[in-house]
Write a structure and sequence with these properties.
Length: 399
């Protein structure tokens, strides 16, 4: 018997302990137990007791990780990632991204025992990665994986006394300004869309501009998410990708799960699309299905996100849709455009943040509060007029 990992996950609003191990035949096994603890800290303590009891019962070789098993940094990180995946704690796309990070970590710390890694080595890896031109976002993500792995090794597995990632510094992220479409570019796009057929991709482009929804969220909309009576769209899922393949997943974050009010224009577009969908169902002799995708086909397929991106690229390039940063606008820039328009028009930031699915209002403010050139010019003119109004010549000062 060989111990593999121990962790806790939420199941039906209760904490569940999970112990993974290798049996005598070399097969991977899992032992689970629902815990009585309500808080995470207490649940971790209860997990430790469950682990000790199970260890004595099964007869593992000691209480340290052994499975031939976890010896190197790469072993430890892979064990952590597989535990997250096995417990359903991460999406498939996140799992794939973590595995890519694991490859880079494995290369950097090849052959180094997990308990020999020190802060100097980790900082050296960060510095070298940055010097070789690796993207700052990638560096920070890889460090987060390594940091989480060692935090788990300390708090859950209890196999290490310290975290070698503590205090490690990463390069500063230089945030790019939103490449939003200004009024002239928006007018050009909308005029073009008015005369174009209502294909799924064209409808998706308008939804991106009029709601600020993400590409995967738009493609994942189902008819059960469209509430014409209450005039709202429910964002409940998204289309994710991994290894070049797409799949339906939950929203990006809990705050991404939201209800978006429908404007009159959105209602008009979706009602026409609904009528077209019902007509096609009638032609094919099938019943309308509330789980069918709004922009997909009657056989249940969703609009491929890649098709949507390619369609937008052709539209943006042919119309010369250049954003405020001087670059051809991407599909994601329509999301930026929506937020910039909403804030510039005086919409309260909390409402915009909720519609966008941001976890914090400060995020919306940081990104979009000063992104509209016209709004900034207007602000300067207001201040200029105030200064002029308050300026009164005082010739006595010249005496």
């Amino acid at each position: 018997m060989q111990f593999k990992s121990a962790t806790i996950v939420k199941r039906e609003k209760r904490w569940q302990a999970q112990i993974t191990y290798i049996d005598e035949k070399g097969k991977r096994r899992r032992k689970t137990k629902f815990l009585s603890s309500q808080g995470k800290k207490a649940a971790l303590e209860e997990l430790e007791q469950f682990k000790e009891d199970f260890t004595r019962q099964i007869g593992f070789e000691g209480n340290r990780m052994k499975v031939g098993d976890v010896q190197t940094v790469a072993d430890l990180v892979l064990n952590y990632i597989e535990t997250l995946s096995g417990s359903g704690s991460i999406e498939l796309s996140t799992y794939s991204a973590y595995k890519e990070g694991w490859k880079r970590i494995s290369t950097a710390f090849e052959g180094i025992r997990y308990d020999d890694l020190d802060i100097e080595s980790v900082q050296g890896w960060i510095n070298e990665s940055y010097a070789h031109g690796r993207a700052v976002s990638t560096i920070r993500k890889d460090l987060n994986i390594l940091r989480a792995t060692y935090t788990n090794a300390i708090d859950v597995l209890r196999i290490l006394p310290f975290n070698p990632t503590t205090g490690v510094k990463t390069p500063k992220v230089i945030r790019e300004e939103p490449n939003s479409l200004d009024s002239a570019m928006r007018s050009k796009l909308l005029s073009f869309m008015t005369v174009m057929d209502d294909t799924p991709a064209n409808i998706a482009i308008r939804l991106a501009l009029l709601t600020g929804m993400r590409r995967g969220e738009i493609c994942a909309l189902q008819w059960r998410d469209i509430d014409f009576e209450r005039s709202i769209m429910k964002v409940r899922r998204a289309i994710g990708s991994t290894g070049g393949k797409f799949y339906v997943k939950s929203t990006k974050t809990p705050s991404s799960r939201r209800d978006i009010p429908m404007s009159d224009e959105i209602r008009r577009i979706l009602k026409m699309k609904r009528a077209s969908y019902i007509e096609k169902c009638f032609d094919f002799g099938i019943q309308p299905n509330p789980e069918c995708f709004v922009l997909g086909s009657v056989d249940g397929r969703y609009l491929n996100p890649t098709v949507l991106s390619k369609t937008w690229k052709m539209v943006a390039t042919s119309l010369g849709l250049v954003g405020t940063e001087g670059k051809i606008a991407t599909l994601r820039d329509l999301r930026h455009t929506f937020a910039t328009m909403a804030i510039a028009s005086g919409t309260d930031v909390r409402s915009v943040s909720s519609i966008m699915g941001h976890s914090k209002t400060s995020m919306t403010l940081d990104i979009y509060a000063s992104a509209d050139p016209k709004a900034k010019r207007d602000a300067m003119e207001v201040v200029d007029e105030l200064i002029k109004a308050e300026t009164r010549p005082d010739f006595s000062l010249m005496k």
